Amino acid sequence: ASSHGLKQNRLDGLKFDISIFTNLSRDHLDYHRTYKDYFNSKLILFNKLIKKRGMVIYDNDIYYSKILKKICKNKNLKSLTIGKKNSNLIIKKHEYFGNLQIVEFEFNKKKYSFTTNLIGKIQVKNLLFSVLAASRSKIKFNKIIESIKYIKPVEGRLEIIGKIKNNSKVILDYAHTPDALKYTLESIKEQFGQSSISIVFGCGGDRDKDKRSIMGKIANQYCNKIFLTDDNPRYENPKKIRNQIKKKINKSKLVEIASRKKAIRIAIENLSSGDILLVAGKGHEIYQEYKGKKKIFSDKKYILKEINSKNAKLFKNWKANILNEKCNLGLVSKKLKINNASINSKNIKKNDIFFAIKGPKNDGNNYADEAIKKGASLALVNKLGKLNKSKKVQVNNTLKILTDASKDVRKISSAKFISITGSSGKTSLKDLLSFSLNKLAPTTKSTQSFNNKFGVPLSLFNVKKNDKFAVLEAGMDKAGEIDNLTKIIKPDFGIITNISYAHIKNFKNLDGIARAKSEIINNIVEGGKIILNQDDEYFNFLKKIALKKNIHIISFSKKNSLS
Question: Which of 97, 293, 376, 408 has its CA 20 to 30 A from that of 275?
Fold first, then answer.
């Protein structure tokens, strides 16, 4: 029931059993002019068009819930609410795993759960509104929950289009107002927090001109690259519209391309592994309007065309695509297989990749041929040598390539990353924890004590696509090393086992070791957690740093009460 339709009396004569209030933003202020008129138009559904003793469903966490509660009381209407507390349906847990949202909730003192591939928390809220409405329509509750897994996104609403071999994504959305664009970008950022976000968008002509610079500012806030293009200019000068949008956009981020077709093509061409492109403003529309003339143009169809073109140039293997972006693999077959990576030729198995790293004692370049002979599908080297040139790729710095590639594996992986540091017990804890987690779901761990600048990127690169957990050590000899290593890992969970005298020769005192170990806290992802030993004398020191960084603390103790 749109606010336009309600205000223009287009729904008069109907009486509803159930009315749902979702939210209120500035979507139609060009028509209503004021929030008051916009809101009052929506309230027609609840004040005039609902049956006696009808049912009102709304979000208890929003500002307008108080007004809806009052309407229900005055009109003797029933109500059902959704919220984090003091509601009929209480959301107990919400988390992401790749493209999926996992939700647990409580209703009528019973617990339920579901997964959905819809993007964005607001879509979860909409699902739950629908669940409550369906439950009032005499459909069995368990059947309702079972059906959620079959629900697909509305065409053009946070819709993932196609599939790209390098695990980048193109998302189509019809967001064309500041609130809608902000919500869409926040949803993407929250669910795919490690990804770089690009956007293709413009603004329509002859509509709400004040929103243009606001939308530019929002895009600038959330996006790494902005492809500014035409929407539906209608009778306005499209360049003038673009100029108004880009007032609040950093020049370093901006690529201005009038042709929407060309903007989409170049934006997709520029997608690296794990990146996300949002094509916003038009969604499912199949035309563009210039000076009263509508020409056929579908964002979705053109996105699919460009994805097919991009996929033809990509490798089948996701890690091969990552490597190709770091160092051109040239004529290497697009069917290249990569199982694991190794810097030790003795450990190579079939279809592994060998990184020839020059260490203080041995030069890995001298062992590249041995690695290929043992079955390596590829060797990254500093010098080609005379043999096996078709299976070698020459680069300047193999360790840098490995490290940069491992960062992209982290960006793409849906696993929860756990990083362990401390003066002692790291390896034992890693082995125990990974053994236990592997009983629940696929888990990768650091091999042996691979906890330095070589071992951490190597272990990270070897994380599998279906892993749900990765348990990695981070070791150190001096200050700054934990910071460097955990910047690569970006842990969801950090663990500091203890602070003691290991490596004291490189520090003035234990305080210096504690500060160095605390560097892990700096790189825990937003919403992440740190696990601390409350019996350690540096617990309060570490706790203070974590609280300052707004990191949730979990502690354990033999003798103290738990925090």
Answer: 376
Return the biggest CA–CA distance within the chain.
Answer: 88
Residue with tokens 């590829």: 378
The fraction of the chain above a pLDDT of 90, given in percent, is 88
In whole angstroms, give the CA distance from residue 239 to residue 212. Answer: 13
Q: Name the H helices within 413-518.
A: 426-438, 455-461, 481-489, 510-517
Structural element, H or E, at residue 439: none
Alpha carbon distance 249, 212 (integer Å):
11
At 432 the three-state DSSP class reads: helix
Count the Cβ atoms, other than its own, within 10 Å of residue 270: 15
- Which of 204, 184, 212, 203 has its CA nearest to residue 276? 184
pLDDT tens figures, 270-295: 999 999 999 999 999 999 999 999 99
Q: In this structure, which amino acid lies at residue 207?
A: R
3-state secondary structure 360-424: CCCEHHHHHHHHHHCCCCEEEECCCCCCCHHHEEECCCHHHHHHHHHHHHHHHCCCEEEEEECCC
Q: Are 16 and 49 in contact (CB under 8 A)?
A: yes
Cα 167 to Cα 155, 207, 317, 488, distances in angstroms:
21, 37, 10, 19
Under 8 Å between Cβ of 371 and 348:
yes
Decide: residue 505, CB within 10 A, 0-12 exposed, 13-18 middle, 19+ buried.
exposed
Distance, in Å, from the CA atom of 530 to the CA atom of 496, rounded to the nearest integer, reads: 8
In terms of DSSP bridges, do strands 16-21 and 159-161 run parallel, antiparallel, or are they unpaired? unpaired
CA atoms within 13 A on the CB side of 14: 13
Alpha-carbon torsion (277, 172, 269, 400), positive or negative: positive
Average pLDDT rounded to a whole number, residues 527-555: 96
pLDDT higher than threshold 70 for residue 25:
no
φ/ψ region of 307 (left if φ > 0, alpha if ψ in -120 to 50, else beta) reads: alpha
Tokens standing for residue 550? 């707004």
Q: What's the confidence (pLDDT) of residue 29? A: 59
Q: Which of 17-26, 107-116, 199-208, 554-563 has the lowest mean pLDDT?
A: 554-563
What are residue 312's phi and psi, to 5 degrees?
A: -65, -20
Q: What value does the mean pLDDT of the chain take?
A: 94
Q: Given the structure tokens 């759960």, which residue do they identify?
A: 113
In contact, 290 and 192? CB cutoff 8 Å: no
Supply the pLDDT for residue 505.
86
Alpha-carbon gap, residue 164 to 78, rounded angstroms = 48
Amino acid letter for position 247:
K
Tokens of 33: 């002019």
pLDDT at 31 over 70: no
Write the pLDDT tens digit of every residue in 321-345. Answer: 999 999 999 889 999 999 999 999 9
Phi, psi of 158 (to 5 degrees): 45, 50
